[in-house]
Amino acid sequence: MKRDIKSLTNEELIAQFTLWAEPAYRVTQLLEWLYRQRAATWDQMSNLPKSLRQKLAGEYTLNVLNLAHRQGSPDTTQKFLWKLADGAFVESVLIPANPALYGEASDRHTLCISTQVGCAYGCKFCASGLDGWKRNLQPEEIIEQVLAVERWHGHQPQELKRIDTTPASDRLANNLVIMGMGEPLANYDNLMAALRILNASWGGGIGARKITISTSGLAPQIRKLAEDPMQFRLAISLHGATDEVRGRIMPVNRKYPLAELTAALDYYQSRKGRMITFEYILIAGVNDALDQARPLAALASRLNAKVNLIPYNAVDGLSWTRPEENIQEAFLAALESEGVTGTLRREKGHDIDAACGQLRLKTERELRDLKPLG
Ligand code: SAH
Ligand code: SF4
């Protein structure tokens, strides 16, 4: 099987071009086409000789993601559903700047990307896991989500754009969160290969500190990540501060209970010295009782973690709901009174199925319903 051109590093391209007796500056030109111009075809690469384009096309694929569906308007949260080469669907979400989330005040847009088709971890509240796991995304399919959103944006009429891309960087989203469909650390090698390319100065040029990886708590992979020299940010989907509560909604907690997870996080911090973030979805009657704020605060203090409270987004076919706003605020206040830094996401994109996996699930179910019987 051919490799996709976007799964190759600068070094690998140089080796290939040397073998072909092509000058080194051709690699620079190719990388320009891939990561700056976001070329979708070999033919677009007009300053590369035709013979070289043919050699490239003979050896590598240049797959792009095709937009199957989009929801949202250009100045609010937008959700993209991509159709992959094998017909599978994945989602990306573009979120306008919101300094209270993962990034900093200077962030213009956050792009949330997927790492797998479906998810094997089956958290009870999550749409991504409802139909199980289909496959891992390849490095280029992870990278392409960034480029495809930018390609789409580049084709919008000027007056619709309203999205500020300052000359300092020509990346539309300067903040990346790996929080779409799938468990990123269960696709560790492909994820790391993709993030290295998205981070490299010859590739995406997105700073490692602008990239947040979210995990449901795969302890061994967190330890592995601790050994990696890259300075990515880490977010943990906690959602329960005791094994009793967490175990009820996250089956992964049986494999890696809190003691094991927190030990891995201790190790991560001893190696990285970096602050982690706890994600805590507030689900009515499940984990929103005020007496849960204390064990949550204890974990956060011990690990020097900040807590993002996220009101639950209803999922079709699931009966969970978010608590009333006064309960959300009271939970935040209880956390803060324990000396923990917390934020409450006053949700964007609530109306467009922005929580992970929802748009894909809906589309797949609609397609299935459309199929003729028999
Ligand atoms: N698998 C990884 C990353 C993808 S999920 C993980 O679990 O961390 C990204 C975040 O969305 C997780 O914190 C997840 O718990 C949360 N999430 C899933 N379904 C949600 C819903 N219906 N409403 C709000 N957040 C949800
Ligand atoms: Fe998978 Fe994360 Fe959804 Fe859990 S929350 S099912 S780990 S995508």
Concise structural overview:
The chain contains 13 helices and 14 strands.
Description of the molecule:
The protein has 374 residues and is of the alpha/beta class. The protein has two domains: 3-61, DNA polymerase, domain 1; 66-369, TIM Barrel (Alpha-Beta Barrel), CATH 3.20.20.70. The protein is 36% helix and 17% strand. The protein is built from 13 helices and 14 strands. It has helices at 10-19, 25-36, 50-59, 139-154, 158-161, 188-199, 219-227, 243-249, 252-255, 258-272, 293-302, 325-337, 358-370, and strands at 3-4, 60-61, 66-71, 78-83, 89-96, 109-112, 116-118, 133-136, 175-178, 211-215, 233-237, 276-282, 306-311, 342-344. The strands form three sheets. The chain has a ten-stranded mixed sheet, with helices on both faces. Strands 1-2 form a two-stranded parallel sheet. It is globular. Mean pLDDT is 89; it is low at 162-168. S-adenosyl-L-homocysteine (SAH) binds next to strand 10 and strand 12.
The major sheet is characterized as: 10 strands, mixed
Give average pLDDT, whole number.
89
SSE string = EHHHEEEEEEEHHEHEHEHHHEHEHEH
> What is the strand content?
15-25%
CATH topology of the largest domain: TIM Barrel
The proportion of residues forming helix, as a percent range, comes to 25-40%
Question: Strand arrangement, largest sheet?
Answer: 3-4-5-6-9-10-11-12-13-14
CATH class membership of the largest domain: Alpha Beta
Total number of helical segments? 13
Structurally, how many domains make up the residues? 2
Bound molecules: S-adenosyl-L-homocysteine, iron/sulfur cluster
